[in-house]
Known about the structure:
Helices cover 24% and strands 31% of the residues. The chain is an alpha+beta fold. The protein has a 5-stranded antiparallel beta sheet with strand order 1-3-4-5-6. A 5-stranded antiparallel beta sheet has the order 11-12-13-14-23. A hairpin with a 7-residue loop joins strand 25 and strand 26 (457-461).
Amino acid sequence: MRNRCFIVYFLLLFPFLSPGVYAQKDSDAWILKEILKDSSFTGEILCQSVPEQGAIFSPSDMISPYYAGYDNLIKNKNGLFIAIEGTGKLYKVALNTNELDFTRIDSTELTGYNHSAFVFSFNDTIYSLGGYGFWSLNGHLRYFRQSSLGWELKPVNRKIPVAINKGLYCDPKNYSIYYIVESQHSADEGLKRDNNDKNRKNQIFELNLKTRDWKESGTPTPEFIELSAASKKFATLPWGDFFYAGPRAQLEFESTLIDYRHNRIFFLNNPDISNAIFDFWYSEKSELNKRLITYYHDSVLTILTSNKERLDIPINKSDFTDTGMSVYVPIEENAILTSTRLTWVGIIAGLSLSILGFVLWKRRNPEPIPISLERNNTVIFDLTEQELLKRFHANPEPCLSVDEVDQILDTIKKSKDVQNQKRSAITRSINNKFLMITGDPGHLISTSRLESDRRMIEYKLDVERYRKIEHLLVPNYIHQSIS
């Protein structure tokens, strides 16, 4: 009798153990059907909900599925797909006589390595970037290979640890992903610039999806940091992230467009759009803790909720006005060299050294012209070098900024290349002459990076070494006499 009861119980339970079950709720099934009905739509789908909602789809073979309040939905020319959070499982969703059909298309076994990974489609191939697992945040770029039914790695020039947050934007038309690192520790090797870095905060990186090269674009501006803290990423538009802040009459902050590619912040100048979203999201009949799905197609922002609500809002780039504010402060392009650039730099450097060596060989003089160490008609340090040295020594701290050195060299209005060459030439000349006079190989003038801004440098004078050559400088000269 017990065996018969067990068989009946198993048969009743069996349909719920099927690996291809429907969405957990009828409302979730309705959302997926609405997305499938927009058959011509392909692009990014932004999913927002509270953990109590659960996943929009969870296979029956999932044991205690990890869920963080979002789902990985991908829509490309091959169909609608769901990547199960924290696993490598990938399901294709289709409509079969108005019923949803979930078909698993992968054969992966490993799980737990990609919680909060960014899942997206590029050239109709599904990718997974970064994620947390095994006590670390990784920077792997994975793609789903249909022929092997599994995930494989794509090499990148450096591994930037990535996890989904509101500062991540995919721009497939321009082959880029922009990622904002709000706080990282030195354990993340991909974020280190040098051995002195302890903690890296507030950086914006860009990944070129064609070359798979990461580069650091800059650091977020205070305006962007304040804006992103006060508003919520609501949708992904072709021009950037749409941050929703509610109607302007009720909240201090405005709804904005974050255009990473052009490094600009735009505000929504059409209040009707903000009002419509607010009324739809916070209406009396609507639950606040509901699932929210947004996507953009054919100049229309579509909003779907777990209350079986749909709102289509026409919206274009012309609905936004430039605020004059930037998303980030750019850094010099050569701050992070890509592998391709490093190769070219090596080739050019090799050719340059070969040419330079040949020229020096042709012009070499076996008896170098001696430099007088006495102060006479030809002073060892020319007047510009002397002015620079005395300006260092006159400061309370023997330091000069880049702009101060450029002012002394009269190169303020020159190009950056000319300024760099002049500063490098005069500091090299002073250090070489100091070596010939004293035999001391140490630098009289050196450079160091500012603690307040590691991108900037300053020039420093070694006071102890300065005393060795101070007697060679012309006293009380006037700069205007330099011809």
